[in-house]
Amino acid sequence: MRIAGIGETLIQREPAAQRPANGAFGEVFEKMIDSVNDSQIKATQAVKDFALGKIENVHDLILAEVEADTSFRMLAQTRNKLVEAYKEIMRMQI
Q1: How many domains does the chain have?
Q2: Does residue 14 lie within any of the structural domains?
Q3: Which CB contacts under 8 angstroms, 24+ apart, belong to 58-65?
Q4: In terms of C-beta distances under 8 Å and separation of at least 24 residues, what long-range contacts does 1-8 make, across chains too?
Q5: What is the pLDDT along the chain (94 residues), one digit of tens a residue?
Q6: Phi/psi-derived region of residue 63, left when phi > 0, alpha when psi is between -120 and 50, beta in every other case
Q7: 48 is in which domain, residue-wise?
């Protein structure tokens, strides 16, 4: 996984809220990943705007950062649980 450096933008995709989810697991998980990506992009933009003096409210900056961090941690934990479930299934004897 590549992490964007300072001044770089993350992958710009169509916002997750605009894409329909038909309920298939892959689509739901993809929408979740896109939602996390959107929050990361918002947080990065908030940091840039704060550094450039476009926003003066530190509360909005911290809120965007915490939201991005929390959503990323939740995605990581979801992935970890999925990997654990997969490993458990693979250990089952038939």
Answers
A1: 1
A2: no
A3: 64/39
A4: 4/44
A5: 455 555 555 555 555 555 555 668 788 889 999 999 999 999 999 999 999 988 888 998 999 999 999 999 999 999 999 999 999 999 998 7
A6: alpha
A7: 23-91
